[in-house]
């Protein structure tokens, strides 16, 4: 079996430091060595709520897309994530598969994830750890996408140490 490179977006705004640490621990247990971006704090988008902590992680896996997504749902559930009808709402943990190699698809999920080049809290950390990797849909590197990004969003790096 071949290894597939995946990039994962992690976000939390409920007991965020705890849940981000739990997510990193669970992902390391599932996938081994992780490439971890800086952790960024941002204001909630689309609703009034506590600030979010966000980061992106790279990992290698032999799992299928379906297996990866199922693993993420289990990690979210293990951390008290309650799926709500509202898209913009507080959450203990949100894990999103951003890319799976260069796969472009709509099922079982949309890949690459649409918000990569729409949200600074996804694009900045992704560009940090995968600057030369090319977006499979538009052919532009994540570093170049970030350099051209000009949508206003308050986002800043924070001091966060994960004992990997």
Automatic annotation (TrEMBL):
Name of this protein: 2-amino-4-hydroxy-6-hydroxymethyldihydropteridine diphosphokinase
Record keywords: ATP-binding, Folate biosynthesis, Kinase, Nucleotide-binding, Transferase
A single MF term (Gene Ontology): 2-amino-4-hydroxy-6-hydroxymethyldihydropteridine diphosphokinase activity
E.C. code: 2.7.6.3
Protein's pathway: Cofactor biosynthesis; tetrahydrofolate biosynthesis; 2-amino-4-hydroxy-6-hydroxymethyl-7,8-dihydropteridine diphosphate from 7,8-dihydroneopterin triphosphate: step 4/4
Gene3D superfamilies noted in UniProt: 7,8-Dihydro-6-hydroxymethylpterin-pyrophosphokinase HPPK (3.30.70.560)
Species in which this protein is naturally found: Paraferrimonas sedimenticola
Alphabetized PANTHER family for the sequence: 2-AMINO-4-HYDROXY-6-HYDROXYMETHYLDIHYDROPTERIDINE PYROPHOSPHOKINASE
GO terms for biological process, alphabetical: folic acid biosynthetic process
7,8-dihydro-6-hydroxymethylpterin-pyrophosphokinase domain segment(s): 7-130
Entry superkingdom: Bacteria
Keyword Transferase: yes
Keyword DNA repair annotated: no
């Amino acid at each position: 079996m071949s290894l597939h490179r995946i990039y994962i977006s992690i976000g939390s705004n409920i007991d965020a430091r705890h849940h981000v640490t739990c997510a990193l621990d669970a992902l390391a247990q599932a996938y081994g060595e992780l490439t971890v971006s800086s952790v960024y704090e941002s204001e909630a988008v689309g609703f009034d709520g506590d600030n979010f902590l966000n980061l992106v992680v790279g990992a290698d896996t032999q799992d299928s897309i379906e297996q990866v997504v199922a693993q993420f749902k289990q990690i979210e559930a293990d951390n008290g994530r309650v799926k709500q009808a509202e898209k913009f709402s507080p959450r203990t943990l949100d894990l999103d598969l951003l890319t799976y190699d260069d796969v472009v698809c709509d099922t079982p999920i949309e890949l690459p994830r649409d918000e990569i080049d729409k949200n600074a809290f996804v694009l900045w950390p992704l560009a940090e750890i995968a600057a030369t990797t090319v977006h499979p849909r538009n052919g532009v590197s994540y570093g170049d996408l970030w350099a051209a990004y000009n949508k206003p969003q308050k986002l800043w790096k924070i001091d966060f140490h994960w004992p990997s």
